[in-house]
Amino acid sequence: MSAARRCRPPRALAGLFVWRLRNTGVQQVPYRFVQLYHIANDRLITFQYFNFLKRMYVTQYNKDLSQRAKPKSDSVVSPFHELQQSDQVKKVLYKISPVSPVHQSQSEISSRNELREIKSETEDSVIPVGAESKEDRQWKEMKLRLDDLPGILARLSKIKLTALVVSTASAGFAMAPVPFELTCFLLASLGTGLASCAANSINQFFEVPFDSNMNRTKNRPLVRGQISPLLAVCFAASCGVPGIALLTLGVNPLTGALGAFNIFLYTCCYTPLKRMSIANTWVGAVVGAIPPIMGWTAATGSLDAGALLLGGILYSWQFPHFNALSWGLREDYSRGGYCMMSVTHPGLCRRVALRHCLALIGLSAVAPVLDITTWTFPVISLPINLYISYLGLRFYRDANRSSSRKLFFCSLWHLPMLLLVMFTCKKSVLEKEDKGDLQGRSCERAMEIRLP
């Protein structure tokens, strides 16, 4: 009995503890819910789902941060339509109905009721100006028509830039000191054009998210969805592979290797460097300098000093051309995330443009030294080189939109004029052959004199 009595107090205490815990737990349940509500209210995240194809907005309320979710508007109405709607609202708001007299005849009352019914019917039939159908607000699949395909592919391949590349390659072919061959010229021009189309298409494929932020490039086919990325890549492959094969097998392997290297340099080096470093301008200048070298190698089959001189002229010409163009597009380039000299290093942009304008004078003077042109070429080309250097100096001193536009438009006619003058002052093949025969005969006479 003593042992049982000793065990009862611990059992009684345990029962009392459990009873107390139950009572306090039941009583504290509301307080705990209130505490949890306050904690959740401090850091509450609510998800609001709107209609189909609209954004999902998240609202977070903290002590330090307070944001409000703004739903996306259903339709965008032009200012003209908004003015019309505001005028209609004003007319309805400020419309004063006439006070009807106390005594009215039955005919007047019936005629007024008929007029009200006619007005209500016309108001129901009229569609509001800003209202749009539900189908117009939905995303629609753009159907590609065969009639629009040539124009889309021309814009995808940057047909104007491709024409410039082919013309510089043709100038390199024409300046080569060999007899002109029409078949080789056509094959080289066609292969160079196809390689340029492939490189430009791949460039646009990589830059779709960045071109969409720029006013200059927001209407490109891939940005607007006029053509699918798969079709763009297939078009690039169908241009690049036959182009390189045509240059390699139809012209010579050296020209084909230069074409393949130029595609790689433009797509894999220049394109990613545009968002990483200002060195992209120098890499892009190398890309533009290779086509005239390809034309020279297509005609001669070898890399000579004349090919390097033509490449040097194209290399230097691109700096005043592109730096002046990029100066007026600084906002666009910064919005698109491109790292350009005009945005990050404006002083260097002006200096480099002036430096290479003056370099064109020196390169023109080297042409007769390398026995490519006569000595009349530096004299005839001096005025146009001095004029572009003068505009480069104005751009260096007063860098504004006017000076940059003048330098850019001058560069557009400066290059074809310089190449045309260079072609007219080219040394003929007969003169070089006669000169070579004279040198050979003089060497033979010297050998005969030396022999006993």
From TrEMBL:
Broadest EC class assigned to this enzyme: transferase
Transmembrane among keywords: yes
Main location per the UniProt record: mitochondrion
Reactions the enzyme catalyzes: heme b + (2E,6E)-farnesyl diphosphate + H2O = Fe(II)-heme o + diphosphate
EC numbers for this chain: 2.5.1.141
Coiled-coil region list: none
BP term (GO), one: cytochrome complex assembly
Pfam families (alphabetical): UbiA
InterPro entries: Protohaem_IX_farnesylTrfase, Protohaem_IX_farnesylTrfase_mt, UbiA_prenyltransferase, UbiA_prenylTrfase_CS, UbiA_sf
UniProt-recorded Gene Ontology molecular function terms: protoheme IX farnesyltransferase activity
Ranges annotated as spanning the membrane: 254-273, 280-299, 375-395, 407-424
UniProt membrane topology term: Multi-pass membrane protein
Record GO cellular component, one term: mitochondrial membrane
Subcellular location: Mitochondrion membrane
UniProtKB keywords: Heme biosynthesis, Membrane, Mitochondrion, Transferase, Transit peptide, Transmembrane, Transmembrane helix
NCBIfam families on file: cyoE_ctaB
Sequence similarity: Belongs to the UbiA prenyltransferase family.
The name this protein goes by in its record: Protoheme IX farnesyltransferase, mitochondrial
